[in-house]
């Protein structure tokens, strides 16, 4: 009976850690985004960017944003696949705490998609303006850098998750689940 209580206690501890990591990830990401977009609310300054340079420049930035958003969507789909199929393939009892890494990665990927949306909105706004100034371009670039940073953090968290899973298998801590056929 004490083993069950201990197991439940550890389950509650890991759930608490998960909540703290998710909350910390959300707070960090939102602070980063607010820093990147703080120029959006201020008056633009600097020299006007030449009109002939704007369309190719905006297309290049938009392409970068689309690639990063595609990677974020693909990684989120992979996270869902891992969460659904992992327990059906191999059971690793001590592996559950590694899901904290998946939570942090998920938050960063979702925030990356939010940065992508902010970029689109700001770009649409700038396209309606008579002229685009240096500070406007800096603001767009800051949002793209933030989106990229969120993807980097998510990739690191996912890499650590995968390495812990592979380590569990290599150390013989996993039990393959027998489906009983063949």
Poorly predicted regions are: none
Q: Give the biggest sheet.
A: 2 strands, antiparallel
Tell me the overall shape: elongated
Number of domains: 1
Order of helices and strands: HHEHHE
- Continuous helix count: 4
Taking all residues together, what is the mean pLDDT?
81
Strand proportion: under 5%
Number of strands: 2
Going across the major beta sheet, what is the strand order? Answer: 1-2
Q: What is the radius of gyration computed over CA atoms, rounded to a whole number of angstroms?
A: 22 Å
Fraction in helix = over 70%
End-to-end C-alpha gap: 37 Å
Q: In terms of structural class, how would the helical and strand content be classed? A: mainly alpha
How would you characterize the overall build of this protein?
- The longest helix has about 35 residues, at about 135-170.
- The protein has helices at about 1-35, 55-90, 100-125, 135-170; strands at about 90, 175.
- The chain has a two-stranded antiparallel sheet with strand order 1-2.
- It is about 75% helix and about 5% strand.
- It is mainly α and about 180 residues long.
- It has four helices and two strands.
- Helix 3 (about 100-125) runs antiparallel to helix 4.
- The protein has one domain (about 1-40, about 50-175).
- The mean pLDDT is about 80.
Features:
mainly alpha; 182 residues; 2 strands; two-stranded antiparallel sheet
Overview in brief:
The protein is mainly α. 76% of the residues lie in helices and 3% in strands.
Summarize the SSE layout with pairings.
Elements: H1 2-37, H2 54-89, E1 90-92, H3 99-127, H4 134-170, E2 174-176
Antiparallel strand pairs: 1-2
Helix pairs in contact: 1-3, 1-4, 2-3, 2-4, 3-4
């Amino acid at each position: 009976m004490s083993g069950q209580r201990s197991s439940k206690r550890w389950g509650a501890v890991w759930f608490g850690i998960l909540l703290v990591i998710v909350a910390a990830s959300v707070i960090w990401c939102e602070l980063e985004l607010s820093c990147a977009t703080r120029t959006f609310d201020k008056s633009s300054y600097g020299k006007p960017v030449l009109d002939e340079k704007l369309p190719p420049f905006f297309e290049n930035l938009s392409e970068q944003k689309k690639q990063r958003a595609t990677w974020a969507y693909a990684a989120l789909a992979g996270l869902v696949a891992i969460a659904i199929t992992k327990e059906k393939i191999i059971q690793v009892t001590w592996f559950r705490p590694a899901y904290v890494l998946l939570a942090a990665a998920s938050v960063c990927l979702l925030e990356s998609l939010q940065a992508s949306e902010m970029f689109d909105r700001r770009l649409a706004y700038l396209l309606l303006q008579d002229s685009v100034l240096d500070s406007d371009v800096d603001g767009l670039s800051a949002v793209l850098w933030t989106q990229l940073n969120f993807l980097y953090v998510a990739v690191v968290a996912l890499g650590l998750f995968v390495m812990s899973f592979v380590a569990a298998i290599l150390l013989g801590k996993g039990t393959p689940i027998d489906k009983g056929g063949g």
